From TrEMBL:
Protein name in UniProt: Thioesterase
Domain of life: Bacteria
GO BP term, example: lipid biosynthetic process
Alphabetical list of SUPFAM superfamilies matching this protein: alpha/beta-Hydrolases
Organism: Lysinibacillus sphaericus
Pfam families hit by this protein: Thioesterase (PF00975)
InterPro entries listed in its UniProt record: AB_hydrolase_fold (IPR029058), TEII (IPR012223), Thioesterase (IPR001031)
Family stated for the protein in its record: Belongs to the thioesterase family.
PANTHER family in alphabetical order: S-ACYL FATTY ACID SYNTHASE THIOESTERASE, MEDIUM CHAIN, THIOESTERASE
Domain Thioesterase, first and last residues per copy: 3-228
Length: 230
């Protein structure tokens, strides 16, 4: 069983570097590398969500023909997961066994806009810091902050500019929705994923803020949720 993991805005494949330690060996973690960060930091940024989805699909298209697979996406990664599902079913004869939507309301619902790419740099970074998404070593380094700022701003921009398109067919596999107890997502926004799915939809709350997946205690709990559903 392959599990493709998609990062949040500003994040790289390194977010998921420790997950193999916590999850059953029958599940193989494949952390997706996005352009402009991590091992692909020399590549140009995506212009929109569709371009990102096309790039991700190119990375996984051969693998999904060979084995069963599922997808886990956090925040921006959850939005990418939703669009990637339709790219897969419209392009191949394959379908994921399960989708894990983490740290985000469904794309058919308008959430509270807390952060905008149009904000001045300082206000923008202060808002990111308030969510708990910047490590202390980054906050203490002007060079690292200057490096990550354009990555974050571009990711937020393509998410802000995303236009939801209603599909004739709902998601045809079971889904899990995971959120932090301290995140700014209400019950209706969590439950809204159910309206996009014909399968079962389970909601899970984990202790923490928007970036609850960066806590190893939560990663252990997430691993159990993944194992139960795969």
């Amino acid at each position: 069983m392959l599990l493709f993991c998609l990062p949040y805005a500003g994040g790289s494949e390194l977010i998921y570097r420790n997950w193999n330690k916590f999850i059953n060996q029958r599940i193989e973690i494949h952390a997706i590398a996005l352009k402009g960060r991590g091992k692909r930091f020399c590549e140009g940024f995506y212009q929109n969500i569709n371009e990102a989805v096309e790039d991700i699909y190119c990375q996984i298209q051969d693998k999904i023909q060979q084995e069963e697979f599922a997808i886990y996406g956090h925040s921006m990664g959850a939005l990418l997961t939703y669009e990637l599902y339709y790219k897969i079913i419209n392009t191949s004869n394959r379908k994921p066994k399960h989708l894990f939507f983490s740290g985000r309301f469904s794309p058919n619902v308008k959430g509270n806009i807390i952060i905008s790419h149009k904000m001045p740099d300082k206000e923008f970074m202060d808002s990111i810091v308030a969510l708990g998404g910047i490590a202390d070593e980054v906050l203490e380094s002007k060079e690292l902050l200057e490096f990550i700022l354009p990555i974050l701003k571009n990711d937020i921009r393509i998410v802000e500019n995303y236009v939801y398109k209603e599909r004739e067919e709902k998601i045809q596999c079971n889904i899990s929705v995971l959120n932090g107890t301290e995140d700014n997502i209400d019950f209706y926004q969590k439950k809204s994923w159910k309206y996009l799915c014909d399968g079962d939809c389970e909601l899970y709350d984990l202790n923490g803020n928007h970036f609850f997946i960066n806590n190893n205690v939560n990663v252990k709990k997430i691993a159990r949720i993944i194992e139960e559903n795969l």
